[in-house]
Amino acid sequence: MNKIVFGNFKYDVLPSGFSVHTDAFRALIKADGIQLGDIEEVVSDPSNIARIEIKNETETEVLRIVTGYSVITKLEKMFDYVYDTSVDEETGEITESKCDVILVELSVPGLKEQTEKNTSDIEYIAIMSDIEL
Question: Is 18 exposed, middle or buried (0-12, 13-18, 19+ CB in 10 A)?
C-alpha cells in the first residue's frame, strides 16, 4: 500500500484511496490500530497538512505532493469498508477485501474567509499607518 505523509506522521492509504480536485483533497487511510482522535490531532495542526506527500509502499519515491488544503471538511471512521472485490474464476465466488478506514477530506480556504482576512489585514495596516479608510 502507498503511504500518506502528514508532517512526520505516515499512514497506509488504500489502493486508489486518495483524490485531489481543485477544491478538495480526499484520502482513505487504513485504520489498523489508529483512533479517529489521533488523526484529528495530526490534521488539525496546520504544519502537518501544509505539505502532504503520497509515497510508494517502500517510501523510496514521492508520487505526489499536495499543498493548499487547510480546512478540515470531513473526518470520520468507516467500519468494514470494502476496498477490493474479486471473483474466483472456477467457482464464481465473490471475495471482498474489507478493513476499517478513516476518511480525511480537506478543502482549500474559501473565498469568504480569504476576503475577511485580507480586509482585516488592510484595516490593521491602515490603523498602524494612521490612514483613514
Answer: buried
